[in-house]
Amino acid sequence: MEQINDDICYAALLARDNRFDGRFYTAVKTTGIFCRPICPAVTPKRQNVEFFPTAEAAIAHGFRPCLRCRPEAAPGSAAAAGVHATVRRAVRLIEEGALTTGSVEDLADRLGLGARHLRRIFKDHTGVSPQDHAKARRLLRARQLIVDSNLSMTEIADIAGFGSLRRFNDAMKGAYGHAPTAFRRGLTDVSDSKVTSGTNNPMQIQKDDMVLRLKPRQPFDNDFLLGFFRARSIPGLEAVGDDYYCRGYLLGGAPGLMICRFLRNGSIEICLRGEDRSSLLDLGARVRRLFDLDADMTAICAVFADDPLLAPLVQRRPGLRVPGCWDRFELAVRAVLGQQVSVAAARTLAGRIVVQYGQALPDHLVAGTGITHLFPQPAVLQGHDLIAIGLTKRRAQTLGDVIDLFAQPNMAERTGDAILADLAAIKGIGPWTLNYFALRGLGDPDAFPAADLGILKGSAQGGGPETAKELEKQSLQWRPWRAYAAQYLWSALIPDADSTNKETDDDHNHAN
């Protein structure tokens, strides 16, 4: 990723965007303290700050680290490198229940460390002990499930890892001063539909469905977002209607079906069907990223407010989001399949892969939904001749190299920058694919595929640059939100009455 300048840093600081955490540090001249961009302290005035690329640089200039946001623990910092990979893995294992069923000593054995060393580095990098982290995480997960789900208290106690309802009640009373049921008193069901057991519509809530409700930051243009996914939905893998997005999933070894229902009150209701009830919050986090629910559109659109090219597009659709992805490997495959072909052709190619190589889902889960398979894992696709699905020899080779990359056992631990570097080394992966993957796969708010034909058409239609070089230059004034600028330029090609991106030369028509 490119080096960011001071103006970009201050814009990110105003929004407290955690995607910039670790990429720069803010030093306040009036206090002599430096912070991470996500620090909860009051934002200092522009003339009182100085920005540094590393914590070490800020210290070398005489600034002291903030005690609230702890710059030494920021991702990508020197303190977060090296042993931080071990801490990150420890956190992941704890979130998966390592300390619910085992001890710190057992966790240390799994990590190849001594228990004393694990406690020390864990506290150095997180500020708490492994046990305290696990306890706090259980409390936070439980409170979210109490307020936002339809699960019983017994189910919540089990999913959050308390082991028993009594321990759950005692822990919640000790932490919050109230019994768990107190958090549900006075709550009104945000659903605009009732449980419809026996209904002929499989997209409605059924009796045994788990439900989690999410609230996007407003404004939120769900119609356009659903149109984007509808145009790119892979047959057999996804189903997208006027007010829902549906797909199968596999977490914890158990298959399930997820239906995201976009309600009239602006909320999103996630309905889950399947035996694994412990993945509700994990799936909720994926949905937040998939639909970019946490974007601060007020701060982002303020950057575009006086821009003659973008301002009319923002006024027309103030709540556009950058669509994310369900899975990075799936998106990487989609990007390669979509090179120099239409959206419809890319969908057809992806559908062939899903039906031929994807895991079939049980009929009792997916009956009537149009969902039949999961997207295949990298190891499943390795070694197959993908020319047979309709690819050229060169495109098949590129896709094969991408599959081999994601099949590596350490991919879950690799940073976004490392993945981009590996992708860039693959023949047939050019700047467009890298920017598109950064934009949707990594959630980089500043990724900008300037060579995209749809973006160039949208720019030209609004009187902006007509070449990638000129547009790239102009886009610098939209930093650090160029991914949102790209989305607005794509939206220029879509009539107000139709958000489906039908047959437009948009993000899939490009050259690498």
Automatic annotation (TrEMBL):
EC number: 3.2.2.21
An annotated GO BP: base-excision repair, AP site formation
Name by which UniProt lists this protein: DNA-3-methyladenine glycosylase II
Cofactor(s) listed in the protein's UniProt record: Zn(2+)
Gene3D superfamilies with a match to the protein in the record: DNA Methylphosphotriester Repair Domain (3.40.10.10), DNA-3-methyladenine glycosylase AlkA, N-terminal domain (3.30.310.20), Helix-hairpin-Helix base-excision DNA repair enzymes (C-terminal) (1.10.1670.10), Homeodomain-like (1.10.10.60), Hypothetical protein, domain 2 (1.10.340.30)
Reaction(s) catalysed by this chain's protein: Hydrolysis of alkylated DNA, releasing 3-methyladenine, 3-methylguanine, 7-methylguanine and 7-methyladenine
Keyword GTP-binding: no
InterPro entries: Ada-like_dom_sf, Ada_DNA_repair_Zn-bd, AlkA_N, AlkA_N_sf, Alkylbase_DNA_Glycosylase/TA, DNA_glycosylase, HhH-GPD_domain, HhH_base_excis_C
PROSITE patterns xref list: HTH_ARAC_FAMILY_2
Species per Swiss-Prot/TrEMBL record: Thalassospira mesophila
Entry GO CC: cytoplasm; protein-DNA complex
Annotated signal peptide: none
Record-level Gene Ontology MF annotations: alkylated DNA binding; DNA-3-methyladenine glycosylase activity; DNA-7-methylguanine glycosylase activity; DNA-binding transcription factor activity; methyltransferase activity; sequence-specific DNA binding; zinc ion binding
PANTHER family reported in the protein's UniProt record: DNA-3-METHYLADENINE GLYCOSYLASE, DNA-3-METHYLADENINE GLYCOSYLASE 2
Keywords assigned: Activator, DNA damage, DNA repair, DNA-binding, Metal-binding, Methyltransferase, Transcription, Transcription regulation, Transferase, Zinc
Top-level taxonomy: Bacteria, Pseudomonadati, Pseudomonadota, Alphaproteobacteria, Rhodospirillales
Domain annotation HTH araC/xylS-type: ranges: 88-186
